[in-house]
Design brief:
The chain has 245 residues and is an alpha/beta fold. It has seven helices and eight strands.
């Protein structure tokens, strides 16, 4: 039954993606602001999260959101544990500022979805050109942070199996150091309900824990990322001890 419900949810996401993407692109052609386009995208993302709850009984709980209260209009890089697609959909829904993802340019080729995200304030990079890619991240990241957007990155680079630790890359920390941004670490137990690269979604609760902001001032990227990794991984073990037994 869980598998059937999972397929129903996938079908519902695809069914709603097409009209939402067309609407977003039409608004783009009509000269709508980036803020309006972002709201259209968040509407669809929230629909995916709510429908996942209604169809598959996958809920989420937030912890530590009060840690964001004192940030105001400060530049912020959000570094998130990456276990499934779930947190990709969730971050724009729960964050108090518009967020901009850093993602590989290949995603732009996905029909409807890629076209939609290509119209938003995002940073798409060519991973094969590392030096140029990071220069683009810094240049566009600085502009987006100045506009009030928060930049979201997954420091492990890709989705990681439940209970495992990926290699924490320095890109997010380097961006924070070069722009003077604060870093907010986020731990997410999404793989308990929606495992990496899986269609099956199991009923349960995804815990999302937001850590206290970490100032990048006076820190080398390696030091900053070490602090981020220590907090995220210790928090993951607290939230999901069975996975790390």
């Amino acid at each position: 039954m869980h598998l059937i419900k999972s397929w129903i949810h996938l079908f519902w996401m695809l069914l709603t993606l097409i009209p939402c993407s067309i609407y977003l692109l039409l608004r783009l052609v009509m000269g709508a602001s980036k803020a309006t386009l972002y709201k259209c995208a968040v509407f669809w993302l929230n629909n995916c999260i709510v429908s996942l709850d209604k169809i598959c009984n996958v809920k989420y709980v937030l912890k530590g959101m009060e840690n964001l209260d004192g940030l105001g209009n400060l530049p912020v890089i959000v570094l998130v544990k990456h276990q499934s697609t779930y947190e990709t959909f969730l971050m724009p829904v729960i964050m108090p500022h518009p967020v901009s993802y850093v993602f590989k340019k290949e995603l732009l080729r996905i029909p409807f979805f890629g076209w939609a995200i290509g119209s938003l304030d995002m940073i798409h990079i060519d991973r094969s050109q590392r030096t140029k890619a990071f220069a683009k991240v810094v240049e566009q990241g600085r502009e987006l942070l100045a506009k009030g957007n928060w930049v979201v990155m997954f420091p492990e680079g890709t989705r990681i199996e439940r209970g495992e630790v990926g290699v924490y890359k320095l890109g997010g920390a380097r961006l924070a150091v070069q722009t003077g941004a604060h870093v907010v670490p986020v731990a997410v137990t999404s793989a308990k309900c929606w495992p990496r690269k899986a269609v099956l979604k199991s009923p349960g609760v995804v815990e999302v824990s937001v850590g206290a902001p970490i100032s990048s001032e006076g820190l080398a990227p390696e030091e900053l990322m070490a602090k981020v990794q220590e907090w995220i991984e210790s928090e993951m073990r607290r939230l999901d001890p069975a996975a790390y037994a």
